[in-house]
Amino acid sequence: MFRKTAQKFIEENSSSIGEKWLRNVSDSSSNNRTLELFIQNMIQGGFLDHLSGFFSEEIEIQQEAAVSIEKLFHKYVPLCTEADVPIGEVIQSFYFIRDVIIKIDGVTEDVALLLSLIKEVDRFFFNFNGLIHDIYALSWKAKLLAHRSEILELSAPLIPVLEDIAVMPIVGTIDTDRAQYITENLLYGAIKNESKVVLIDITGVAVVNTMVAQYILKAAEAIHLIGAECIVVGIRPEIAQTMISLGIELDSLQTLSSLSQGLRQALSMTGKKITDIEGGKIK
């Protein structure tokens, strides 16, 4: 009985419900423009028609309606995630529909009917609230991965400073993913810029442990394989002590304490030198 009542009410009043729904969102949300567009798309996509079908007494119609509503959520909820609308506001916008259904004339007078209707309505909104959470979670994960990719690109740039010489400053913590990106960026950058000497500056790396040292060695070996030389600079005293205590051997790798020393060495290796100029005359 309660299903038939809800289905009939939604079918007969869908236009009115849609108008009031939009007005309610406009009045109650700080993100009303995005939510209005979201609700408009849901209405135009047939949400209220599918909602009435969900309350059909025929199981097959219920299932078809649920699938159709799920497709609408997957299609239009991303409008809200892209605009950073809080998930609570998206979910809250549907409670207006819940309240409208529960307050159907004649239902509130019958306690047993009202309880059954509330149970059915809440089952519907519980399922689709979970779906909204899932869509938001996927969106957040995609954004995090995109941001991580952008950060990786910015975190280890290979900078050509002079002909045949490039520098890669590394700042922060080196993990497996970042180490792989550093190695790839070193190789592609060195080949692209035709670099003969590459300086890896680890001045900004807070911790150099066995794992980090192995990554640096592998990166240097990769540079050697393409015919270039690699110099690691920025070996601070505390890092040197840590590496010695860990038994890390960098005998096969050329290391220097500062970037300026590294640049001088790179200039020498590429047949260049620094010349001071005073009063327009070469000194």
Outline the biggest β-sheet: 5 strands, mixed
Assign a percent range to the helix content: 55-70%
Give the termini distance in whole angstroms. Answer: 101 Å
Low-confidence stretches: none
List the total number of helices.
Answer: 11
Question: What is the general shape?
Answer: rod-shaped
Radius of gyration: 32 Å
How is this structure best described in words?
With 283 residues, the protein is of the alpha/beta class. It has 2 domains: 149 residues; 124 residues, Transcription Regulator spoIIAA (2-Layer Sandwich), CATH 3.30.750. The chain contains 11 helices and 7 strands. The strands form 2 sheets. Strands 1-2-3-4-5 form a 5-stranded mixed β-sheet, with helices on both faces. Strands 6-7 form a two-stranded antiparallel ribbon. The longest helix has 45 residues. It starts with a helix and ends with a strand.
